[in-house]
Amino acid sequence: METALAAYLPQDRCRALARGEDLPERTSGAALFADISGFTPLTEALDRALGARRGVEEVTRQINRVYDALIDEVERYGGSVIGFAGDAMTCWFDDAERLETRDLRLENPDPASSLQPPAPAAVRATTAALALQAAMRQFGAIKLPDGSTTALALKVAVASGPARRLVVGDGAIQLLDVLAGAPLLRTAAGEHLAAQGEVLIDQPTATALGDLIAVTEWRSDEQTGERFAVLRELNIENEKLSSELISDVSHAQFSMLDSQLLRPWLLPAVYERHQAGLGDFLTELRPAVALFIQFRGIDYVDDADAGIKLDAFIRLVQATLTRYSGALIQLTIGDKGSYLQATFGAPIAHEDDPRRAARAALALLALPEQLAFLSPLQAGISHGVLRVGAYGGASRRTYGAMGDEVNLAARLMQRAAPGEALINGRVQPALAADFTLEPLEPIPLKGMPEPLPIFRLTGERMRSVRLSEPAYALPMVGRATELAQIGEKLELALTSRGQVIGITAEA
Fold first, then answer.
1. d(Cα 502, Cα 489) in Å, to the nearest integer?
2. C-beta contacts of 303-309 below 8 A and 24+ residues apart
3. Given pLDDT bands bounded at 50, 70 and 90, which one contains residue 246?
4. 110, 212, 216, 374: most buried, per Cβ within 10 A?
């Protein structure tokens, strides 16, 4: 049981917990960002061939196969998968990480050579990146039920340097492991420049590796000016990496971790499902609402209080989502603003999830004064059938939500102006009676024959309805105090302060 729970944490975090230690906030190493493409056409093909329910089971099986292969390579070279973002994962190779085997070294170095051993994390991350592309080749032709094939592909970017490892959030809800800093931002820029099947490394990584790498070409990010090398191979003809570079650390050792020690790192509903022995049945198709919120205003590189600021914001988000029975399932620190993803309807569902999501979005857009360091938030909301549940490998997984509606909510968030929340036409009928909505120009979407109607969510309607009272011919006698109390409660209800009155008596 504890081994399954430990899979929701990065390996280095589990190792630290097993040692009774904490990971330092300030660290140095190499970040690796791997983005998988091709899951959407695979999902559509399996849905057509097998139907929605069987299709999602097969898609989940294929996704987990891919992640198992990729995560094995990351952990094989001493890296840890920090987080997932849809079809992508962010990994970290720490210079100071204490592995169970000896540190990375070069075998039989030439004493006469002027070549100095490169930074261990840079070598491990780059080696892992090439190993990821090699592992991905087995998914280049996935056979479909009709006999045809579809392909999955991978883009990988590696960047090195100092970073910050932050723990944020309310432990009573969920603690979040966050990687932030310049290397993470550069991996995002490098991934945008990469083509399928390529590995790009940033300038600091290329400098650290020196003559060990062979480069196809250099590319530059137009906005930042950062340069990235397209890696052809890791040239280690004379200096072979030791086979003992590979970490023997197995997640089986984490079975010694107490479940109560792991509980704060999981969503309560996910933890409870695992405790009930239902962890393998978390993945399902279900109607749910996806809420994306973008935020800016925290300098993760130079601001010493960045962790404190992020923690304050995430705690507010968690408290707000909990008030409306939503769940924060993803936090991503990005190069063009950071964002978070929440769901309503998974893992816990209600018949009014769209309204709950709208109220939560409006509450979060009204940032309190103590979070004035943040720029106005941007939000996007969509509603539909999502594929929700646990996905990833056997040693590292997450609880997430995928599907077209998730992608649409993310696009609406990006399109929203600062301080604005946008919804699509599928959400509008559920909100029209209770919220003020401003129709906007429909937006064209790839794969859709007609532009998509969208609306700006501007507020909640203040509605008061007083039911007609029956007319009695005889006067009421007695109970003056009780009648006065009922009248007071009715007046409070008319000012949107809901009240409950109970009357009990003999029949």
1. 11
2. 306/164, 306/166, 306/180, 307/25, 307/164, 307/166, 307/167, 307/168, 309/371, 309/373
3. very low
4. 212
| Two tokens, residue 336 | 């063009």
Mean pLDDT, range 398-406, rounded to an integer: 89
**Tokens found for residue 258:** 């107490």
What is d(CA 96, CA 77) in angstroms, rounded to the nearest whole number? Answer: 14
Give yes or no for a contact between 267 and 329, defined as CB atoms under 8 angstroms apart: yes
Peptide bond just before 347 cis, omega within 30 deg: yes
Q: Residue holding tokens 């988000």?
A: 317
Mean pLDDT of 139-154: 86
Q: Which residue has the tokens 């003809």?
A: 237
Q: Which of 331, 296, 297, 301 is nearest to 314 (CA)?
A: 331
Cα dihedral: 132, 137, 138, 142 (round 10): 120
Is-contact 235 127, C-beta < 8 A?
A: no
Residue 64 corresponds to which amino acid? N
DSSP per-residue letters across 414-438? HHSPTTEEEEETTTHHHHTTTEEEE
3-state SS string for 459-479: EECCCCCCCCCCCCCCCCCCC
Mean pLDDT of the residues in the chain: 85
Cα angle: 166, vertex 171, 175; to 5 degrees: 35
Amino acid symbol at 95: D
Axis crossing angle, helix 39-50 with helix 52-76, rounded to the nearest 10: 150
Copy the structure tokens of residue 154: 């991978």
Going from the C-alpha of 131 to that of each of 33, 65, 125, 126, 199, the distances in angstroms are 14, 16, 10, 9, 10
β pairing state of 420-424 and 378-392? parallel
Nearest Cα to Cα of residue 72 among 110, 148, 128? 128
- Tokens representing 60 are 């989940």
